[in-house]
From TrEMBL, chain A:
Its main location: membrane. Signal peptide: none annotated. Pfam families: ABC_tran (PF00005). It is found in: Cell membrane. Keywords: ATP-binding, Cell membrane, Ion transport, Iron, Iron transport, Membrane, Nucleotide-binding, Transport. Residues 4-240 form the ABC transporter domain. It is a peripheral membrane protein. GO terms for biological process: iron ion transport. It comes from Paenisporosarcina quisquiliarum. This is ABC transporter ATP-binding protein. PANTHER family: IRON(3+)-HYDROXAMATE IMPORT ATP-BINDING PROTEIN FHUC (PTHR42771:SF4).
Automatic annotation (TrEMBL), chain B:
The keyword Cell inner membrane does not apply. It is found in: Cell membrane. Keywords: Cell membrane, Membrane, Transmembrane, Transmembrane helix, Transport. It comes from Paenisporosarcina quisquiliarum. GO terms for cellular component: plasma membrane. GO terms for biological process: siderophore-iron import into cell. GO terms for molecular function: transmembrane transporter activity. SUPFAM superfamilies: ABC transporter involved in vitamin B12 uptake, BtuC. Belongs to the binding-protein-dependent transport system permease family. FecCD subfamily. This is Iron ABC transporter permease.
Length: 263, 335
């Protein structure tokens, strides 16, 4: 039984159809990574599956109920979303920002309970941002800020976390740090993680399941070994890739690539 | 979660502005025509004044002070809410066309529905209110799209366009009307606070009594709205619903104020901005402060305006605009 499924999805911005007739199931308690060229609709799919944007046709069903019909607050207790480059949090402190992750669990007056405070501290702890709790978010570096936003998603205490390019703007070490944090959450806490990534080798290394998209459709999906292959990458990105095996992880790795010319 | 030092600062500023309001009110009482001399204010309030003193204090000056304060507060809160909803610090009830809507309704009523003088002044706030509300509904319908919902930026643009169109309609109407009638409408538009009798307090007070606690209850939601739509939806805020409810509240506040005071812009722009600069962007802290700042600004504008030019003075709306327009330009250039 898969908890989250999209069926015959059509998503349009104004007159442009971004995603057409797309069906997908998100494997529970796994890390799913969506890859694809720019403009293929991967971010759009991620947003539609988390009701950040509406879809025009088809359905997104979580636990047997359409996400459009379910109260948005109750949905926020099940799914957390970290959008691509969130807005500036201004003068808010790290602690305050992360406390908003408790919104779906609060009553109308919004007092923080002991449980809320514990969850906030836990989220700061695991993301390594506890030290900055009373610092303004804007005073942090890009990597620290990204971890704070992840802490906000964690404080939401959801089984599923969706992230849109969580490693953008980070250097190599910080990218790995974020991905390892997510992997650890997946392994130790059985959280379902769905993210859009640009780096194929990160996708291959961290994903249990990869969805390859192009022109608003899913070209192929499956484990790394089936997606990070010469023919699939050629079809997805128009690249001629040299695939090897990562000597440390045993996962496929794209060693080098050229653009496919001609045909 | 909010740092204690900021909370303490906010408390201090609330006291400071309360004091400023009180001081401005007292100074204003002793200035200009039919004033009460300073050493007679306290005895008169305690019921030991002469008839003239009592009349001036309780029937002329106090209602005007109270109305001005309340209207300033309502405009400030309205502006603060609109800025929170649109995430644009330049939003103001005047800018999104509410003043013009009320103005046109007043003009139509005044020119085409001759009423008796007695009932007339009490119907006028209602007419202005209906005009403002209708305008808001039209602006809302135009800025709502079925695919993307209500877009804050479009709300502002449609509002500006609407406000221009209504001003045009106003010129057409006025150009075909009597001199005397035009005079009243012109004064209304300039924001000369005219509803200066106790019953007018009743036209505005209930809105504030209901909507101030309502806005404070929504403070945290407004903070979350400030983080952008994706984040707000992500943590489970019904963004569309909150925007609609808060917009209605902002319109009601502005309409109730403008219906009694005439067209006053910029208070809704300046007061929240000043409050935000002083205590930061958290709504639970800066909303209460904007109320006091807004009330004080309008009070001081009215006090200065009344005494600056003999005999009729300058309408408060003009005074506010004299300070507000440069402030608006300053905000624009700072962006």
């Amino acid at each position: 039984m898969v908890r989250l499924q999209a069926k015959d999805l059509q998503i349009r911005y104004a007159d442009r159809t971004i995603v057409e007739n797309l069906s997908v199931s998100i494997p529970d308690e796994k890390i799913t990574v969506i890859i694809g060229p720019n403009g293929c609709g991967k971010s759009t799919l991620l947003k539609a599956m988390t009701r950040i944007i509406p879809h025009q046709k088809g359905s997104v069903v979580l636990d047997g109920e359409s996400i459009v019909k379910e109260p948005t607050k109750r949905l926020a207790q099940k799914i957390a979303v970290l959008p691509q480059t969130p807005e500036s949090a201004g003068a808010l402190t790290v602690g305050e920002l992360v406390s908003y992750g408790r919104f779906p669990h609060q009553n109308r007056f919004g007092r923080l309970t002991k449980k809320d405070l514990e969850m906030i501290d836990w989220a700061l702890e695991v993301t390594g941002t506890k030290f900055f709790k009373s610092h303004p978010v804007d005073s942090l570096s890009g990597g620290q800020r990204q971890r704070v936003w992840i802490a906000l998603a964690l404080a939401q205490e959801t089984d599923m976390i969706f992230l849109d390019e969580p490693t953008t703007y980070l250097d190599m070490a910080h990218q790995l740090e974020i991905l390892e944090l997510l992997q650890q959450l997946n392994v130790t806490e059985k959280r379902t993680i769905v993210m859009v990534l640009h780096d194929l080798n990160h996708a291959a290394r961290f994903a249990d399941y990869i969805i390859g998209m192009k022109f608003g459709k899913i070209v192929k999906s499956g484990p790394s070994e089936e997606i990070i292959t010469k023919p699939v990458l050629r079809e997805l990105f128009q690249i001629d890739a040299e695939i090897g095996e990562d000597p440390r992880t045993g996962k496929p790795i794209c060693i080098t690539y050229n653009l496919v010319r001609g045909d | 979660m909010i740092e204690k030092s900021i909370i303490r600062k906010q408390r201090m500023l609330l006291i400071v502005f309360s004091f400023l309001i009180l001081a401005t009110a007292v100074i204003g009482l002793g200035l200009g025509y039919s004033s009460v001399s300073y050493d007679r204010i306290l005895p008169t309030i305690l019921g030991q004044g002469e008839f003239k003193e009592e009349f001036v204090l309780f029937s002329v000056r106090l209602p005007r002070i109270v109305i001005t304060l309340l209207a300033g507060m309502a405009l400030a809160l309205s502006g603060a809410l609109l800025q929170g909803i649109t995430r644009n610090e330049l939003a103001d009830p005047g800018i999104i066309g509410i003043n013009s809507g009320a103005g046109v309704a007043v003009a139509i009523f005044f020119l085409y529905f001759p009423a008796e003088a007695g009932t007339f002044i009490y119907v006028l706030p209602l007419v202005a209110f209906i005009g403002a509300l209708l305008t808001a509904v039209i602006i809302y319908l135009f800025s709502y799209s079925r695919t993307t919902g209500m877009e804050p930026v479009r709300l502002v643009l449609v509002g500006v366009g609407m406000s221009m169109a209504l001003s045009g309609a106003m010129v057409v109407m006025i150009s075909s009307a009597d001199r005397i009638k035009v005079d009243f409408i012109a004064r209304w538009l300039a924001g000369g606070i005219w509803g200066t009798d106790w019953p007018f307090v009743l036209a505005i007070l209930p809105w504030l009594v209901v909507l101030i606690p309502f806005a404070l209850m929504k403070a945290n939601r407004l903070n979350i709205l400030g983080l952008g739509e994706p984040v707000a939806i992500g943590v489970g805020l019904s963004v569309q619903k909150e925007r609609i409810v808060l917009t209605l509240a902002a319109v009601a506040l502005a309409a109730s104020a403008v219906s009694v005071t005439g067209g006053i812009s910029f208070i809704g722009l300046m007061a929240p901005h000043i409050a935000r600069t002083l205590v930061g962007p958290r709504h639970q802290l800066f909303l209460p402060l904007s109320l006091l700042v807004g009330g004080w600004l309008l009070l001081i504008a009215d006090t200065i305006g009344r005494n600056i030019i003999e005999p009729n003075g300058l309408p408060a709306g003009v005074m506010v605009a004299l300070i507000g327009a440069p402030y608006f330009i300053y905000l624009l250039t700072k962006k």
